[in-house]
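Bumping with the actual sequence this time:
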Amino acid sequence: MQTFVLLLWTGALLGYGSCENTSLEELAAVVSNFGYDLYRVRSRESPAANVLLSPLSVATALSALSLGAEQRTEGSIHRALYYDLISKPDIHSTYKGLLASVTAPEKNLKSASRIVFERKLRIKASFVAPLEKSYGTRPRILTGNNHLDLQEINNWVQARMKGKIARSTREMPSGISILLLGVAYFKGQWVTKFDSRKTSLDDFHLDEERTVKVPMMSDPKAILRYGLDSDLNCKIAQLPLTGSMSIIFFLPLKVTQNLTIIEESLTSEFIHDIDRELKTVQAVLTIPKLKLSYEGELTKSVQELKLQSLFDSPDFSKITGKPIKLTQVEHRNGFEWNEDGAGTTPSPGLQPAHLTFSLDYHLNQPFIFVLRDTDTGALLFIGKILDPRGT
């Protein structure tokens, strides 16, 4: 029987207004809630496959695009990003601060977004200047030569991600009016590294009947933050990463359990509450080594987030005098962790609670993880891992 039972609840979004650092934290909270929405849609579309997203890069592209939208279209984007729920004297300058915070060198996160327009489009300077000022990017106008356009986009991704994401071999889609591209890469560094000599091939249970062998890292005396959520029937653990980052794992009590009930609970407020409630414990920990990537379209997923109007008849007259519309949303990302870490011993400040039983936390069956920036609360990556091999 577990000692720590967390009865977690979803607080009101506007509760973030009580924080001292309201602007960055409020913006991080609402943009993250867009991210959880996007993840849920994507997970429903791929019920039997891994899902790996860096929603921040997609939210950034949409937020940047809203600079060129007139009131009706801007309102649609802002509602999807939950901007209507916060005070917003200058959302875009605050976003600049958020991006600077979460992509600081010590965070190990690379994130970038870009807006690509149809060929021969005349873009207003009044759109380009604030785009560059707040989002650090310039729009790209297609040449119409698919080979050259793909090469240029690949070169941009390589430059922004420092070569960590493979070049795309997919063909440029035809009929592009506006293409949004979000890219991200993260390789985590644990605060306490794993002993590579203790990594071994072990069972990962895909379901009740099928198991596969995967490299599992282990630490028999891991210090982590832990809780049992009786409503969601899952064990929650949080491991610290360098750069004020952390990963929260959601592990169902049974391998047969549907992950949907956990997914439906994910909000910035829920994660905020978890972060306050988890208890520091010592546990026997096993966790699969992970190296995953994703490249594909999120067009359909974005349409489902009450943004269909962007694809039909939006008003982007702040960008150009010609009628244009969103036609495609692309996402590329890479994510990995291995034994690497900053030190061999836990932080002196982490004093585990004394338990009367041995606590095990084995990520040896399907789980969900959330990578979070602890400075701002921003959701940076989210994954549903049904098979750590990536197949």
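The tokens above came from a reply further down the thread. The radius of gyration is 21 Å.
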